[in-house]
Amino acid sequence: MKPLALAALVLAIAAPASALSNMEKTVQNDLRKRGVSEDCLAKLTTNDAARITGWKNDSDMSAGTKNRRIKDEVNKICRR
């Protein structure tokens, strides 16, 4: 593979990964503010962060339902 093509491939793969990393950092910071321990935050996956972000941004869901789902998900993550 030519070096230029390889560099383009690396950039194409790295760009989406950095966006997910920002999402994970945002979720981790939000959970830290809620008092979640660092041990639990270390177990957080990209899938977990995407699920929590989806609930936080769902305009059809009530605030109480959002809080309950996030709390239940965090408890599930901590039990791993």
Note down, in words, how this protein is organized.
This protein is mostly helical. Helices cover 80% and strands 0% of the residues. The longest helix has 31 residues, at 3-33. It is globular and about 55 Å long.
Brief description of this entry?
The chain has 80 residues and is mostly helical. The chain has helices spanning 3-33, 38-42, 46-56, 63-79.
Biggest sheet architecture: none
* Subunit arrangement of the protein: single chain
Backbone CA Rg: 16 Å
Question: Secondary-structure element order, as H and E?
Answer: HHHH
List the helices and strands and how they pair.
Layout lengths: L2 H31 L4 H5 L3 H11 L6 H17 L1
Key structural traits:
0% strand; 80 residues; 4 helices; mainly alpha
